[in-house]
Amino acid sequence: MKSLKRYQYERYAVLCRLAYPRIFKQTAFGFDPNGQRIIRNVERKIMARVLWNKKRQEVILVIKGSHSVKDWLLNLAFWHRSCGRFGLNYSIHAGFYYLLTQESPPSHRDDRLGLSVFERVIDIIGPLLDSGMRLVITGHSSGGAIGCVIGDYIEHHYPKAIKRIVTFGQPAAGDWRFKKRYTLPHKTYRVCCDLDIVTFMPLVPFAYWHVGKLLWLYNGRIYENTPTLMRLGRSLLSWIIRPFSYHLMSKYIRNKDFFDEH
C-alpha cells in the first residue's frame, strides 16, 4: 500500500474541518466556481459536500461526522443492518445505515425529489465519474464510516474511479463480512489521534471491524497499523504517567531564557 503523503493528509484534514461551517467557498481551495453540490439530511442540515476541479479531473466527497444530539444517539444503534439494498453483501451499523438511507431534500435545481442521502450522492457523483474524473472520499467520525460504504459501492460500479479514502476519528462500520469483502483496503487510510475513544467504537467485541491502513498520531509521531490493544494500552499508560512527567528536569529547563529576561 502506498503511504499517504503529509501534504495530502493535511489537505484532507482541512477539508474535513471546513465541511462543518454553513458557508464554504470552494474557489478559495482550488475548486471550480460551479464545483460544489450540497447534500442535506432529512432535517435539511448540510451533511456532505461534493467538490470538483475539472482541470485536475478530481472530485472530492467530504462527509461530516455527528453534529447533533440525534446523530450521537444514532451511534448507540449498534445492531447490524444488511446492505443488500445497495447491492453489497454484508451488514453495517444500524445508525450508519440510517444516515445513508434517510431522505435528502433537494438543494440544487438539478436535484431530483425523493432520493435518500446515498442515492443523492451517487446521483451527483455518477455523471462526474462518467466524464473520466477520479474520486477522493474523506470524512470525520461517522462520516468516515459511511464514506467507506459509499466508496465500496462506487468501486463496484465505477472500477478504479476511487483514488483514495481518508477518514478521521472513524468508528468501525461493519461486520466480519464487511472486512473480508471490502474492495478498497489498499486505498483506505484511517487516521486516529491519541486516545480518541470513538475510534474504538462500537464497543461490541468481534461484532465490528475496521478496514484499511491505520495511521495513528501519537506523541508527535505517526505509527502505522498499531494493534488496537497496543494502541489502547499505550494511550492509557501515557495518561497515567503524564502528571509525573512534569517532575522531570527537562520540564524545568525548557524555558532556559526565563531568568535572563527577568
Automatic annotation (TrEMBL):
Signal peptide: none annotated. Pfam families: Lipase_3 (PF01764). Residues 61-204 form the Fungal lipase-type domain. One of its GO terms (biological process) is lipid metabolic process. Coiled coil: none annotated. This is Fungal lipase-type domain-containing protein. It comes from Vibrio ezurae NBRC 102218. The lineage of its organism: Bacteria, Pseudomonadati, Pseudomonadota, Gammaproteobacteria, Vibrionales.
